[in-house]
Amino acid sequence: MEYSWKELIAVDRYIVHANGVLSELDRKVLTLLYQPLIGAQAYSLYMTLWSELEQARLWSEETTHHSLMAIMQCSLPTIYAERLKLEGIGLLNTYMKRTNENDERVFIYELCLPLTPEQFFTDGVLNVFLYDRVGKTKFQKLKKFFSDRAIDRTSFIPVTRSFHDVFSSIQPEKMIHKLSDEAKQEVMLQDGQQYIGKEQAMYTMRDDIFDFDTFYAGLSHHLVPRRAITEKVKDAIKKLAFLYGIGPLDMQKIVMSVIDPAEQIDIEALRKAAQEWYQFERGEALPRLYDRVQPLEERTIAHVEPKNEEEYLMKQLETVSPRQLLMDFSGGVEPALADLQLIEEIMFKQKLPPGVMNVLIYYVMLRTDMKLPKKYVEKIASSWARKKVRTVKQAMELAKKEAREYETFIKEKEKKGSKKPIRTELLPDWLQTDYSQFERKQVKSEEELEQKRRELEERLKKPKS
């Protein structure tokens, strides 16, 4: 989602509120488990907002976003983008109201406590994302760090006293219903107040990320009664469908395989069945980065009907995974393992979103006769990562701009022959690359390049028709 001045301006005021008292364990969970998922800047924003709370208090003083910009030393669009990450992962709730004075806006940033280590590592989505980000070795170290030896109770007998063994009953005349109205008011909490407590962060996924209508339509009421699909089960279905790329028809089979004789669905059994389905279908232990699609918050035309060929292509690149894009180019043939490994490595190291990776693939294959030269792809990826390209639109505009600069550079070089060209600006490394080292078929003219572009677009349209 792109930043707009309508969303946030520097003079807008905000107050920080916490839905519980943050502890040292919460800090470690945020640092070691959440930070690899949200990045250093989003983590810094959360910690900065946390620091504005006094110790063991739930509310901060009111201040402006200009102050936040000065503390974090970053722009307002950056703060807004990182705020969305915190909201998406369930660490922040944002509320806004307009005051009567000059129609000014006041925001409440409600900090949510992170999940406990047990909740995080058994979540089914966050733990898999963490595994992808940090790798197997680091993931196992983190699990070990947040766990400890359990008590072996087998050789012990419980001797703990119960409440009634220690405390005597309250005398009837002192019971609260015997108190006067004035005394009852002293016991009860006043209106507008709340007790300091704890409530873990819970991220949400909208229903529209999964086609529940198709799922319910093909689900037998005799085998799986509608009452078995509780809110918890429904939430698990959305997460598993998002994580493993499971469609409604396959999800029907998975659900029917785990429902028990009491017509109930165990969430853990559902997760295991989804993992087994994924391993059987893809032959992999966990979903890889090249199977992800562009996150909704970083899509530019998610809810817009394409008006021209460029917007149609943009929407396709936003809604398919890099693996699926390669399959579309090859008419449904599974991509080469080397290509998938290259994409996986680049997405992990350069932190490129799936949609941006799709633009990179599309552009490189257009320029190199349907090949993915490793060094060439890595140079472009590194360049785009430094420029913080996050959306398909940004990537497409940058690719077109740099392609024009490269063509100009080549023409000037040809005019001057063997003489070293005089350049007025420093071009990116990948624009200076000699394409012939990749043994590509040289593109001789703009007409031939345009023809290749049309061929790629036709290949993309075929699987969709």
Can you characterise this structure?
The chain has helices at 24-38, 40-51, 65-72, 76-88, 117-121, 126-145, 163-166, 181-187, 212-217, 231-244, 248-258, 267-282, 309-319, 322-329, 337-350, 354-367, 374-386, 392-415, 446-464; strands at 13-18, 63-64, 92-98, 105-111. The protein has 465 residues and is mainly α. Among the domains are: 4-114, Orthogonal Bundle (Arc Repressor Mutant, subunit A); 212-282, no CATH class; 291-415 and 425-430, no CATH class. The protein has a four-stranded mixed sheet. A hairpin with a 6-residue loop joins strand 3 and strand 4 (105-111). The longest helix has 24 residues, at 392-415. Keywords: Coiled coil. Belongs to the DnaB/DnaD family.
Which labels suit this protein?
465 residues, mainly alpha, four-stranded mixed beta sheet, 19 helices, 50% helix, globular, Replication initiation and membrane attachment protein, DnaB/C_C
Strand content bin:
under 5%
Overall outline: globular
Secondary-structure element string: EHHEHHEEHHHHHHHHHHHHHHH
- On the 0-100 scale, what is the average pLDDT? 77
Strand order of the biggest β-sheet: 2-1-4-3
Domain DnaB/C C-terminal: 340-397
Pfam families: DnaB_2, WHD_DnaB
Family: Belongs to the DnaB/DnaD family.
Keywords: Coiled coil
Write the layout of secondary structure elements.
Blueprint: E1 13-18, H1 24-38, H2 40-51, E2 63-64, H3 65-72, H4 76-88, E3 92-98, E4 105-111, H5 117-121, H6 126-145, H7 163-166, H8 181-187, H9 212-217, H10 231-244, H11 248-258, H12 267-282, H13 309-319, H14 322-329, H15 337-350, H16 354-367, H17 374-386, H18 392-415, H19 446-464
Parallel strand pairs: 1-4
Antiparallel strand pairs: 1-2, 3-4
